[in-house]
Every structure is written in C-alpha cells, then in structure tokens.
Amino acid sequence: MDSLMKKSTPKTPYNTSNDMTDQSQDQVPCCCFFCCMREPDATIKKAGIASCFKEMPLHENQEHVLVLSALWHIAMNQPNDPEFPSLGIFKCMANLIHKGIKDRNWLLTDQNIYIPYYAAHIIGSYTMNEEEFALVAVQSGVIPPLLELLSGKISWVEQRVAVRALGHLASYESTFDSVAKYELEVVKLAMNLASTCLEVVYVEFVGVKDVNRRLEYHRNLVNRGVGDLEMENHKAEEWASQIQCWSIYLLNSFACKDRLLSLNLLCKRVFLKDLCNMWGGLVNHTSPAGVGLIRILCYSKVGRKSIADSPKVIKTLGNLSRSSDDWQYIGIDCLLLLLKDPDTRYKVFDVAVLYLVDLIDLRSLGDKPNVGEIITKVLLLEHNHSKLKFNGQKVETPLQEVVDLKVHRRVKERLMSQEKLEEARVLANLIKQQGNLMLRLGKVEEALLKYSEALDVCPLRFRKERMVLYSNKAQCNLMLMNPDSAISDSTRALCLSDQANTHSKSLWRRSQAYDMKGMAKESLMDSIMFMNCCIKSDNNDAKSSVKIPYQAARMICKQMEATWIFAKAHHSKVTQHKNQVVEKTKEYCNEIGREDESGEGNYEEQHLDHKELMMEKRGLMLGLSTIIEEPFNTKEAADRRKMERANRRLKKGVVARPTPKLTRLCLDMLVGERSYGFDVGVLAFEKIGRRRTAASLPERGTRDRHHGHRRQQPRRDSTWKVYGVARRPPPSWNSDHPIHYIQCDISDPDDAQSKLSVLTDVTHIFYVSWTKRPTEAEICRVNGAMLRNWKHMWPVLAEQFGIEEYGFEEGSNLRLSELMKDKGPVWDEIVKENQLLPTKLEEVGEWWFADLILGGEVPLDSMNKAKEHGFLGFRNSKNSFITWIDKNKAYKIVP
C-alpha cells in the first residue's frame, strides 16, 4: 500500500480550479474538454469531445483528473444519455485503466491515482441501465482492464468499481458471452473477493486508527472530501458491504446460466460455508447477498446435491426461515426445493422438518399466499411410503404432529357444531387462566403444562387464542432456560398473527431466546421488528408519544455490535496483536529472568497471566466497561462518544467514583483557596472505596481544566476535605480514615437538612437522585425510598405467616443459633399440626451460616429501581419473597 503514495501533491480533484500551474506548461497540450463542453455548435462540440477522448490516454496532463471527475458526475446523474457513449468514452476509459496498471510512474504522478477509479466507475454507470451501451463498452475492449482491476492490481477501492461494472455487463444477454470468455478467471476472482473483501477493507482502512497512515486518495474517495472520521468509517463499511454484494451479483449471472464450470466452482464446500455468513446487513438491506446465490444454486441439480451435503448451509436456511428477515421466504423456498427433489429429500429431511413444522400455520408471507399449506403438502409428501427412510423418533414425532393438526383435527372440527366449538374455546380460556395463575406464583413447569393442555383443547380456527397460548409457552420456556422450545413456540405464535411476524410479545421473546443461543443476527431482526410494532402501536394513539422500550434499545445496540460486518476481521486483528504482545512479554520476562534469577521465579508466569486477563477481559476492566447504569437518549455512535468523554473526565478527576450502587454523587464544585468535597454512604466498601474517593479528588487549580489551562502546582493547604454521611457511627477499627464522619439519616429530609446545613466550609452539597425533582427535600425522599432500611418488609413477611408481633429492637445483638438452640420440639409440633413434610429443624436452616451472613453491617439492595431502568434480570424484591414463600407452602416445607 505504501507504493501507492503519490510523488507530488498538487491540487486535488476536489479543488477544481481551472488555473494552470507552471508544471503543466511543459506538458504536451491536448484539446480542452471543458472548452468543448461550452461550445454552442453541436457538431463542433461532438467533434471536440471525440478528439479529447482519443487524445487523453496519449498525453500527460494533470488536468485529466478534473475531466474524469466531471465525467463521473455526468455519468452518475445522466446514465442514460447516449452522447458520450457514442463519442468513444468507453475506449478512452479502458485505455486510461490499462495505462494506470502498466505505467506505475504515471499512476503515482500528480493526481493520476484517481483516474482508474473514475474510469471504471464511469463504465459501470453508463452500462447500468442500457443494454445498448453495454454492447458498445464490450466492443470497446473494457473487459480486460476491468479484470486487471478486479484482480487487485491497484487496491480494494478499484476492485469495488470493477466488480460493479462487470456485474452490469454480465447481466445482459447480448454481452454475457463476452464476459463468459473469461469465465474461470471471473468466477475465481469474484469468489475470492466476496470471501476476503471485509478483512481487506478493515486491515487496510477501517482498522487503521491513525488516519495519517491511511491512503489519502482512499479517504478523499470515501468521504468525498467532507465529513469526520466517524462518517469516513461508516462509508467504508458501506463500501465493503457493496463489494461483497456486487461480487455475489456477478456470480449470480453465471449461476443462472447453469454453466457446469461455474457451478462446480460455486458449489465447493468452503465457499458455501462462506456464503452463509454473507448478508447485506442494515446498510445494503435490499440485497439477499449469500442466501440469494444459495437459492439460485438450489434450482440446479448440482447445486442441490452440494447444498444437501453441507449441514451448515441447511442450518442457515432453517434459521432464516424462522426469522423476521426480509428474505425469510428464501430460506423456506430453498428448503422446499431440497425436499421436493427425491435425491436430496431424505438427506435434509431430519433437519428441515424441525424448522418447517413451526411454519405450517403461516397463511401468507409478503405476496406469497398459502405458505403454510404448501409446507404441509411437501412435508407429508409420500408420508405413508417413506417412514422407513426417516431417522427414527426425532423426525417421526414432529411429522406426526403435522398429521394430527392438519389432517385429523381439521376433519374432526369440521364435524363439530358451532356451539361445541365455542364451548371448547371457553374451556381453553379457563385452562389458560389457570396457567397464568401458576406463572404468577412462580410454578413455571405447571403453567407450561396448562398452556399445552389449552392448545390441545382450543379449536384451530381460533387463531388469536392459539397465538396467545403459544406466546405464553415461549415465555415459560424462556424462564426455564430452554431457548430452542421458546424459539419454536414464539415462531408458531408469529405465524398465527393477523400479519406474519407482527405479534410484539412473541417477537421480543424470540429475540431473547436467539440471544441466549448466541444468534445475534436473528435476535437483531426480531428486536427491530419488535421496535417497529411498538412505534406502530404508539402511532395509533394520537395522544401518546413514541416510546421505545429501553430493554429493546439495549438489545439492538448489543446485537448491532455483534453483527458488525468487520467483527470477524477485528477479532482476527486483536488476536494477532494479543499473540504479538504475549511473545514480546515472554521475551522481556526471559531477559529479566536472565538478569536476575533470584527471587523472580514466578514473575514471568504472573505477568503473562495478568496480561492475558487484561486482553481477554478488557470489557470488564475499570474504565472500559460498555454497560452503564442509565440509558443515553442518543444513537449508538453518540453513546460511544459520551462514554469516551466520561472516561476521560474520570481520569482527569472531574467526576468522583460512584459510591455504593444505589447512589451517585457528582463532584463539580467551585474551587477556592481551600476546596472541600462531600461524599455519601461511607460504611459500604469502607477500606477501599472511600479512601480512593478522597485520594482521587482534584487538587487546587482544577477549575482551569474547563479552559484548557495547565493545572497549577498544588500546595499543602489545597487538598479536599471530604465529609462522609452514614446512619451509623464510624467503626472503632477505622479511626484513621481520612473522611470526616457525620451521623445522619439521608432518607429523612428533616434530619439531613439539620445535620448538613451547619457545614459552613462546604462549597456545594449535591442531592442526587435517578430522576430530577424540583426540590432538595423531594430528592431526599426519592433517595430514601432507595436507601431505606428494610423494615417495610417486616409486615409483609409477618402477614404471610400470620404473625401479629414482629420485629426486633434496633441495636440489639441477636444470634439465630442461640434462638433456635432448643426449638426442635416446637418445630416438630408445627410439622405435625400443619401436615408438612417430615423434616428436622436442622434441615430447615443452617443457623450458624445465617449468623455469619447477616451478622455483618452490609447494605441490603433492592433491585426494583434497576428493573424500572431496563435491567430485567432481577425480580421485584417484595413479590419475589411472597412467591417463594407460597412455593414452599405448596411443597409443604413451611406452614
């Protein structure tokens, strides 16, 4: 790549000044293209332009790049205009490309490096729509120089426009044979480009963080001279995806012709596996990419045979058929084509049936009607004569389910009266309500059985009721950590919706199930569809604004990062860098060991392990976390920038480290001759957290950080004085702590105001809560609701066990091991009276362990607030206690 650096740097094609430099006066003059364009006489104008096209490849003129830039704009805006194609533009462009490839010195002179790119782009633009222009281009000899660019003779930027132009030429009947003369070369080059382009673009452009090391002409072509680094990377990502999609488009032209040479190359197992990972992404969502080529291969016997022998391709098609992707029908169509072929049916049936059985209730998919009926007919094709060819119970069970649903039950319900059908619907609804009750009580397995029972009763014609039951089953399977069953049930629910893939709850549940299986692409598609359903439902209510659930936004951000087209290339580069770091570390440690072998025997191993841990767990290290506790109200790109700015401020000391999980105090005070800090919650993380907070506060002169001034030299009297607030007095074992304690209950507004208002040497006191409140008193109440002692749980627990007198005096030292020491006979009476399971008191609880855990002063965290902010991995604390108590009662463990 360094060989593409230019020899001189005159004006660029983006500074299109017509002023000639002194250097151009010594060059051979040629007809001025821009003068010819301004000629009013049409005959003279055409003759002049034709002369320009003939002379341009023969002479050297730094103004040529300006002419090519102008022609590029004209071709983009007027691709159907026959003027330039009739005057020899294709011959001129072909000669310029050939000259750029063969004459390296000319290519690297002035701005000539841009000319091959513009020339190939102009050819592709003019051949995009008009077959007549494509025929003229082929006759002008554009194919050989385009193949040179496609082979990578210059760079990936030129490969992009070359494969675009060749794809247009191969798409016309009149010009395909001309391209097919180079069939072996074209197919191999396109296959290689489709498989490697993403890694090449990342390594040579996107992965180069130092923009000064990127080729300047690449940057100018990508961002057209405008935009920042983020836009530049985004455009490069779009271009990389286009290279891959256009390469597949070129291969499609050969696959459609059933040419044996091309099919044998395309059906190689390695390339078929690569096709499974090729998709247009969100950038080129109109391209079917890899699965589009797989579908074309399925129309040929050679293609079907090769695909049937590739388990990964079959699995990819199955996952696609059960997704919300726009190309879902391609996955279904490919599986049906394989099942209809007697030579491939029994090779793929045991896998395909597990996916297609969930789609038999699908009515229509886009403009394709009766999709479910077609699937049913194909699955039951030769059913009675082919049982011996199936691989046992794994296939026979879902196939028998299809027979029962689509044959036996359909015939049975046709004979039922309307009254009987309504009775069955009501009965199914009652069973569903029982399942809902079981689910609320935490009896997930029992709820799952109830929903299955309701499905067996509910008639097939009541699609909405069956949709809800399947969706509820999916939720139960999610809670039981059974993602495969959750995907199956939610897919069936989505097939039963009025319009396919529009039931929001099922979409979200399937998205979570796919996430559990690590299938980021499918999870992303379902999350986006779920978000669209939320937007549509909000739009139906004119009074409400559009609300996107926070958990959906988090899921989309997570999966977009996982499905980033450069993720594999980035991982490869990081792994390579990690190996280099490990090797350098080994060499360094070996040198240290040779210099001093005494007392350093374990240093090498410890240092290396720590380095590997830093590389492998970099997302968990301080300052590198990608998970935050509150959502940003901006897009993903802005989230990254905010996180980076927050990390930089943290390193500079602008923001203090967070105190225990439920409170955060942001220190941004005015700094005078003496500066004072303020901290909250000092008893948790006593030995580490508060000392680090006091030590990390900025010293005198920090105020100038906002203006970019250099920090002044700190003095001894310019340190922070940090006050700590806690409900309990300071512990005796920590008397040398640098924090000044204030005994105060911040959950009590009056106590907080009275204790803190007397501090005259504090610059500012910030009362901070999760959400804004108009007054400090209300903020204190909000914090109090989060930090309060769990005394409010006493009446809840007492009510569950029927206890009237409860609670203990605060400050008293109680040990459960002492209280329960002689209570064995009492427990035996309770067991006998309440008919509980025969257990001993020692089996019910390990009291010494309870004393060990509960005897210390630790904060009891309520996760209710976290759940409201989208952290759905936690249950409501109060409801969770009640649920587990009810569950233990049902199991006859407690009265």
TrEMBL record:
Residues 27-267 form the ARM repeat N-terminal plant domain. Its main location: cytoplasm. The keyword Ubl conjugation does not apply. Residues 10-24 have a biased composition (Polar residues). TPR repeats lie at residues 428-461. It is found in: Cytoplasm, Myofibril, Sarcomere, A band; Cytoplasm, Myofibril, Sarcomere, Z line. Residues 1-24, 694-718 are annotated as: Disordered. This is Protein unc-45 homolog B. It comes from Crotalaria pallida. Keywords: Repeat, TPR repeat. Residues 703-713 have a biased composition (Basic residues). It comes from the Eukaryota. InterPro entries: ARM-like, ARM-type_fold, ARM_7, Armadillo, TPR-like_helical_dom_sf, TPR_rpt.
